[in-house]
Amino acid sequence: xxxxxxxxxxxxxxxxxxxxxxxxxxxxxxxxxxxxxxxxxxxxxxxxxxxxxxxxxxxxxxxxxxxxxxxxxxxxxxxxxxxxxxxxxxxxxxxxxxxxxxxxxxxxxxxxxxxxxxxxxxxxxxxxxxxxxxxxxxxxxxxxxxxxxxxxxxxxxxxxxxxxxxxxxxxxxxxxxxxxxxxxxxxxxxxxxxxxxxxxxxxxxxxxxxxxxxxxxxxxxxxxxxxxxxxxxxxxxxxxxxxxxxxxxxxxxxxxxxxxxxxxxxxxxxxxxxxxxxxxxxxxxxxxxxxxxxxxxxxxxxxxxxxxxxxxxxxxxxxxxxxxxxxxxxxxxxxxxxxxxxxxxxxxxxxxxxxxxxxxxxxxxxxxxxxxxxxxxxxxxxxxxxxxxxxxxxxxxxxx
Length: 400
Known about the structure:
Layout: E1 2-7, E2 27-28, E3 31-32, H1 33-43, E4 48-53, H2 57-64, E5 73-78, H3 85-90, E6 100-104, E7 107-109, H4 111-118, E8 124-129, E9 138-142, E10 145-150, E11 160-168, H5 171-176, H6 189-198, E12 203-206, E13 210-212, H7 218-227, E14 233-234, E15 237-238, E16 243-250, E17 255-256, E18 261-268, E19 273-274, E20 279-281, E21 284-286, E22 291-294, E23 297-299, E24 302-303, E25 308-311, E26 314-316, E27 319-320, E28 331-332, E29 343-344, E30 347-348, E31 356-358, E32 363-364, E33 369-370, E34 374-376, E35 381-382, E36 387-388, E37 391-392, E38 397-398
Parallel strand pairs: 1-4, 1-6, 4-5, 8-12, 14-16, 15-17, 16-18, 17-19, 18-20, 18-21, 19-22, 20-23, 21-24, 22-25, 23-26, 24-27, 26-28, 27-31, 28-33, 31-34, 32-35, 33-36, 34-37, 35-38
Antiparallel strand pairs: 2-3, 6-11, 7-13, 8-11, 9-10, 29-30
């Protein structure tokens, strides 16, 4: 069996984190999100992959190459213009010749679910029971067969959603060739399912675990999910006087200095410096070449490589881009006083605690304050003592 992975999109809802990289290459537990998915598929028994790439495709190609380092074989095909999931799959026509698994590259699936899924006869659709089905395409199911599919609706007919995982035969390409442009100006894969549904041929496979990584704050959810069941792996140096209460993964050349307290699960990349007297709280992932300094507190955050948070800073429930620098005393708030869900760029994060999304190469002066739900573009400069909130465009200067 083969696996086709859709990895061509930019991920506009992920901006500013996708300004220079495709969404599927954003890190979760310090590895590109697509890597976790590919390894789960490999461990389920599939080693022949087709990657549909497009936006900043070279980053995907450079990382995975021919797949041999991961124990798989990868061939690439390009979706030249992002015109929908149906169009993306059509780019793989001619590269698959038997039953194949099709998955979106921006989700988290567990190996056990994939094994169960690929044991079923095609065509088959992976479905998941969601607490907020209005955000997804919703399916209705009777006796294990899909009887209807409704795109995002304020009043969905149920809570089973289309999880973006499919088991197809090559006949799907013939069906797709007759699909016309949707109202959004795209060729929708879901439109190709209509015939299967009307003929009662599309079965449903309920997934036990699934997570869509469609918004920046979903990176925190995925980071927590994939941090489960990790074990200590310390390749760097932990000085005397460091207290670790939980799991620590520490990369080569990294140092945790005396007085630092780590609780929960913490993942630290290569060539990092933590402390002295830092406080790192659960489900925090710190990329390569970062400096987390004296009396800094990080909580449930993802920090991309080459970022410096060096003195008396607090970062909670946030995603911080690469190459950023935090002036002494700069802090990010993560809780509204009314305890309502935090909104970011007008979108409900569905999180009571969420700090900020910070793009690449953002420079903060000393004693800056960043309010909950702030979305700060790349290459922003923030003057000392500034208050930041809302959505800040890239290349903006705030304050004096």
